[in-house]
TrEMBL record:
<dbReference type="GO" id="GO:0008967">
    <property type="term" value="F:phosphoglycolate phosphatase activity"/>
</dbReference>
<dbReference type="InterPro" id="IPR036412">
    <property type="entry name" value="HAD-like_sf"/>
</dbReference>
<dbReference type="Pfam" id="PF00702">
    <property type="entry name" value="Hydrolase"/>
</dbReference>
<keyword id="KW-0378">Hydrolase</keyword>
<protein>
    <submittedName>
        <fullName>HAD-IA family hydrolase</fullName>
    </submittedName>
</protein>
<dbReference type="InterPro" id="IPR023214">
    <property type="entry name" value="HAD_sf"/>
</dbReference>
<dbReference type="GO" id="GO:0006281">
    <property type="term" value="P:DNA repair"/>
</dbReference>
<dbReference type="InterPro" id="IPR050155">
    <property type="entry name" value="HAD-like_hydrolase_sf"/>
</dbReference>
<dbReference type="GO" id="GO:0005829">
    <property type="term" value="C:cytosol"/>
</dbReference>
<dbReference type="InterPro" id="IPR006439">
    <property type="entry name" value="HAD-SF_hydro_IA"/>
</dbReference>
<dbReference type="InterPro" id="IPR023198">
    <property type="entry name" value="PGP-like_dom2"/>
</dbReference>
Length: 222
């Protein structure tokens, strides 16, 4: 039977969460909103629509929302040629591919941004497909992106494992019926990920690779 390992990218494979946080923080300030950086970081991983609602006042002038999203994109784009993958992230993708698992990246990144993330990963030989938020009706923590990834890989939920760094990843997976393995590389605690329903949590992609044979990623379907 076919099986798949689906990976979130930002904060899971590539070290971008804090770059997103500072870019959002600056975009908010440009429009008169001062938001504590910690609050911004904790919302990273949601879709941008939900992120704004999570950190900004409900009674704000929403006519500026699109401008803040555009501002975040422009500010974050300055980092694209300097993005770093986490240690052994590419090797982890290749290990999954080597056992015959389909490797799918699931991300809300635009096509251009995804290009920068893939360059940082330098593991295109191991990637079978990309699931994009352009194909979903609702962003995380809704299950839509996980479900699109399943369809892209042509597998059922019980034939897949998801790897992510945020509580939003875990919540989306729980709703989609896909087990989620957490990593701490995005800045979310082990307790938070486990409390949301992660089946296991590792410090980093490198630790997950070291412990691969004992993990749920190893031969996810016999």
């Amino acid at each position: 039977m076919k099986d798949a390992v689906i990976f979130d990218v930002d904060g899971t494979l590539v070290d971008t969460n804090y770059l997103h946080a500072v870019s959002w923080w600056q975009a908010f300030r440009q429009h008169g909103h001062t938001v504590p950086m910690a609050s911004v970081h904790r919302a990273v991983g949601m879709g941008s629509d939900k992120l704004l609602d999570a950190v900004l006042p409900a009674d704000r002038d929403r006519s500026a929302d699109d401008a803040m999203r555009s501002g975040h994109t422009a500010l974050y784009a300055q980092y694209w040629d300097r993005l770093d993958a986490f240690a052994d992230a590419g090797a982890l993708l290749r290990r999954c591919a080597s056992q015959g698992s389909r490797v799918v990246l699931a991300s809300s990144a635009s096509a251009t941004e995804m290009g920068a993330l893939r360059r940082a990963l330098d593991a295109d030989d191991a990637i079978d497909a990309i699931a994009s938020s352009a194909d979903v009706e609702e962003s995380k923590p809704a299950p839509d992106l996980v479900e699109v990834a399943l369809r892209t890989a042509d597998v059922a939920a019980e034939q897949a494992v998801f790897v992510g760094d945020a509580v939003w990843d875990v919540r989306a997976c729980v709703r989609a019926g896909v087990p989620c393995v957490g990593v701490l590389s995005g800045g979310t605690s082990r307790a938070e990920l486990m409390d949301e329903g992660a089946v296991a949590v590792y410090a980093s992609p490198a630790e997950l690779l070291r412990e691969f044979d004992a993990s749920v990623l190893h031969r996810t379907i016999a």
